[in-house]
Amino acid sequence: MIVVMDKNYTSDNINQVVKYIKDKGLETNVSKGKSKCVIGILGNISVENLEKISAMKCVEKISKVQEPYKKANRLFHPEDTVVNVNNSKIGGGNLGIIAGPCAVESEEQIVEIARQVKDSGADFLRGGAFKPRTSPYSFQGLELNGLKLMQIAKAETGLAIVSELMSVSYLDEFMNTVDVIQIGARNMQNYDLLKQVGRTNKPVILKRGLSSTIEEWLLSAEHIMAAGNENIILCERGIRTFETYTRNTLDLSAIPVVKKHSHLPIIVDPSHGTGHSQYVESMSMAAIVAGCDGLMIEVHNNPKQALSDGQQSITPNEFDKMMKKIKLLSELDRNLK
Amino acid sequence: MIVVMDKNYTSDNINQVVKYIKDKGLETNVSKGKSKCVIGILGNISVENLEKISAMKCVEKISKVQEPYKKANRLFHPEDTVVNVNNSKIGGGNLGIIAGPCAVESEEQIVEIARQVKDSGADFLRGGAFKPRTSPYSFQGLELNGLKLMQIAKAETGLAIVSELMSVSYLDEFMNTVDVIQIGARNMQNYDLLKQVGRTNKPVILKRGLSSTIEEWLLSAEHIMAAGNENIILCERGIRTFETYTRNTLDLSAIPVVKKHSHLPIIVDPSHGTGHSQYVESMSMAAIVAGCDGLMIEVHNNPKQALSDGQQSITPNEFDKMMKKIKLLSELDRNLK
Amino acid sequence: MIVVMDKNYTSDNINQVVKYIKDKGLETNVSKGKSKCVIGILGNISVENLEKISAMKCVEKISKVQEPYKKANRLFHPEDTVVNVNNSKIGGGNLGIIAGPCAVESEEQIVEIARQVKDSGADFLRGGAFKPRTSPYSFQGLELNGLKLMQIAKAETGLAIVSELMSVSYLDEFMNTVDVIQIGARNMQNYDLLKQVGRTNKPVILKRGLSSTIEEWLLSAEHIMAAGNENIILCERGIRTFETYTRNTLDLSAIPVVKKHSHLPIIVDPSHGTGHSQYVESMSMAAIVAGCDGLMIEVHNNPKQALSDGQQSITPNEFDKMMKKIKLLSELDRNLK
Amino acid sequence: MIVVMDKNYTSDNINQVVKYIKDKGLETNVSKGKSKCVIGILGNISVENLEKISAMKCVEKISKVQEPYKKANRLFHPEDTVVNVNNSKIGGGNLGIIAGPCAVESEEQIVEIARQVKDSGADFLRGGAFKPRTSPYSFQGLELNGLKLMQIAKAETGLAIVSELMSVSYLDEFMNTVDVIQIGARNMQNYDLLKQVGRTNKPVILKRGLSSTIEEWLLSAEHIMAAGNENIILCERGIRTFETYTRNTLDLSAIPVVKKHSHLPIIVDPSHGTGHSQYVESMSMAAIVAGCDGLMIEVHNNPKQALSDGQQSITPNEFDKMMKKIKLLSELDRNLK
Predict the structure, then answer these.
(1) Is this prediction's ipTM beyond 0.90?
(2) Cβ–Cβ of A219/B135 closer than 8 Å?
(3) Window D:237-256, CB contacts with B under 8 Å
(4) DSSP classification of residue C211
(5) What is the pLDDT of residues C70-97, one digit of tens each?
(6) End-to-end alpha-carbon separation of chain D, Å?
(7) Rounded CA gap, C145 and C149, in Å?
(8) What does the pLDDT look like over B176-220, one tens digit per residue?
(9) Touching B: D residues 207-226, CB under 8 Å
(10) Closest-approach residue (CA) in chain B for D242
(11) Is the domain covering C2-63 a CATH 3.40.190.10 domain?
């Protein structure tokens, strides 16, 4: 950590900062230039203590040198994390394919889609029972009944099930029904929710917030890990930019960046990322060769009748064609490494 | 609402869309151009039903004509909403000044700051008991004990108290202790929390999300209002942009925009909005003449020792000087109207 | 085009708008709802005339139905454009690989790199002679001498050469030396420059502006095409967002979006797009399977001695390995279609 | 400047970096921590030399300590710059009010508006003769004839005239006709144009680019100053964000930020900044109390007939009312200092 002194610094100011740091049991290195003075802090200083330094009048700014996350940091955990869900694995070379409708609508719908995506090679069934909707007047999901229908689909197909948890009040129900808890983009910094799922051992898919930096995203993972749960799968789902031809801007460079900084697996959701079914296949294929550990794809047997997000869902038939390409690509990709 | 047909549309496609809309009990207007056809929908169509239309292959896109929020919409409620808190009012020409530290740290600290900001003319005391922190290793607040200290400060000064609620589990404690519940930027789309505070009659400060459009913000207010609570104060606190010289970009144009579209009062937080104490006074004054209904200012008696956000807190002395200017400005501003 | 009337519209207002439109020789369709009235305009109305409508007090807003670009629009030109440069082609299934240093530094440097990238399979040599630099104190390029060195490298290798034109004053020199003129991101809306290159028949690479929407980018292509030059290659090179782990956010979804809306070829520059050499290979591979028509890659024989952008340049050896993978990928990709 | 070494650094690596820096005639300070090593550079290192360091494999990153602009930097020039234009001044407590239409349309139009804005207290007349338009099919301005009409309006009223220069080819004509050359947002990084106006002594209004940081903006001013022209007025005109209720997001915090970092005057254009005439007055007043040195306001005698940007222009009558308020505000503001 580096403290940059104000241009009007005096020797007293330097002594004051150095004393403050030494009082915390840390060492310093002072470098005086002609119009600037810089003080290096050696060792681990906590965030609160840093903020106090930056509030001193004689300090211009503070520059970080190390990443603020530890458990999620590849530096301290060089091996890829592999998350196990029932008999499937995600991470460390294992590709996890999650498919299903945006929202669970009926037993017939969810079971039919589950069968079809399983036939095409999916390992996980996604389906929203509780839906976060921008408008209070939109369809909010079938709620607990939706979870029951997911379980029926699981019983029929053996697919592991993934659903979004929006409220700590339903955590117990989710523990008993789903195989993976999804935390949505809007709740990426709902720290109460992160802490509660962190106290379980249930695998968690943590979606990137709409305008979260990768550092903030890894810090949200750190919140879950600090509470005890290390079974985390990151999910890139597009960030907010000024572009309007796509719903969000899918940040595929997040894949190699996360791989560099963290050991956690990362999957990609091109359905929310682009918002248009016609762009899902090309972005899925791109994500695979960019090195992701899986995909989350919206599949609906009747997109134009879907109760939500129909315009970004592909059909089971389109999914099947895409999966064939993905298998070939991912084989080639493995050979190229 | 306008449906724009795909360029390859057929008469059958038009009939299909028109039939779908008429089956919902609504009327249509069809306009055929040379290469485009547009269908107007007259009346109120729900969001789910719209999504189905946009998923039809023959439809290129849908354009909204009306705002999606109703209770928060000035169109249906032309008079300014005035929120009453104990003996103070915010909105409709009443300026509410909220001041205090980012975090409650001790009885001595909160009571001293409370006395000073009251002397300078503040009506409300802010103070964080539960702190949303990006890192799990930062100071998380004094929690329930913080609320108790706020109550002591209230007993000493009579100031109404404002504190941030992050978890529905603490709603009962907040109902019994604070005068205004603050929903932070990170929780602006935590719909579970919005719905729960919506079921109370406690005044709510709803901060704008870091990358939320004004429309999304008003829709979050609508979530609270739809649940029954109309005592909402909006708070602009800066949005995320590419600029790095400020912590966020304070969007003061949100003030006249909100005034046009909604009847709800809007206040401004220049401390988080800029992230630097030296910019707080100029942005506060600008917000006043732009027409805001109040300010939320971080004041700390010892910023360099503050446990959080010291660099953006002003001292009680700086606050006092600023309040004198604000009184003059706000008098002039009233005369100019 | 759709005109949405203000909620307080009168019949006179409608007549006024309708008359204005009819006077331009166009037809209208009026749809009156309970609290809104919408007027459709059939036929082609110019942008200036539209702006006048939106300034009328009785008009709330205007919604576009058709894309504002015509020559660049796939709607009116369904076949892929193929740009021919000497013996190479870009677009319509032909992949163009452009490689070379950020800046030309010396004859030895540019000739050595040219030989190496040619051996690995590149068709084009890039090299900056005139460099747009944020700071006036940075290295500005070898200027005209740089172009001469590029010609030497062309004579040695036969590679077509690509260099950035920043000023109309040098257009003649560029016409006589380079095979493709590059317009950089900062000049994407330098309309004087666009118009001048539009009057030539030289192939142009048009980079996307740092914060340009795809629509604005296609409109800049339209400026060149409207002046007479249709040999345009679009180049996605990352957009500005809040993310800091990458220099820009590479928007790979721009590939299928451009393919849908335009017939022009699109290539990708992952070197500027990510800003880090270690992310270049994965993003290049992703761009290929996403359907791009080529790549522009910074290659330097000694990145740590490069006079600019060394941190994002790969070595000839890394480029060679990547090209082998790209050939395999692109074969597979062709088979998958 | 701080060099952060890679975690796998060796003593050899340190020696290599230190030697490189010392060879440039600069001194270093090495601070070794447990898992990190940091090297401070004392003195002024050029940007190219820095880039070479950051490309070394053993270096993780480089952190800047000093601002990269010098002539524009308040650190080296503490007094406010005052720009003199004929008999008017902008900066150092002198408010410059610039008003007029987006585009010059006719002699009658420009002379009438000039008279009216002069009567209300404007010092400068703005008017576009050459218009940068996103679409090549929009009205491009009256070009040289527009400049002649501006001169007629100047002869009638004595107002100094301001017009946008888009091409170096017209620099001579501008030198002979306008009093202030405006560089538009799209050309903020057109370095060829900056350098050419830098070689004159004509006052320049430099608009902030649509997505430029304040640092980049000051560096563009530095380009002009480095070429010899120090008569620069910065103009904040809104930045691009995700918000859609306003055309751009007007960044009023840029005023105190620029005042802190630079001695150059800064004015505000709320017409482009918000894109809606109804928000111009409140944002103008806010800009004044935030400390700006002037305003640039679009005024049109017949906004609904304007050939461009009618929806953001106010009428001469609205301008007159606003100017009365601004005089009162600015008097109060002076007294408050």
Answers:
(1) no
(2) yes
(3) 239, 241-246, 249-253, 255-256
(4) T
(5) 899 998 889 999 999 998 999 999 999 9
(6) 37
(7) 6
(8) 999 999 999 999 999 999 999 999 999 999 999 999 999 999 999
(9) 211, 213-215
(10) B213
(11) no
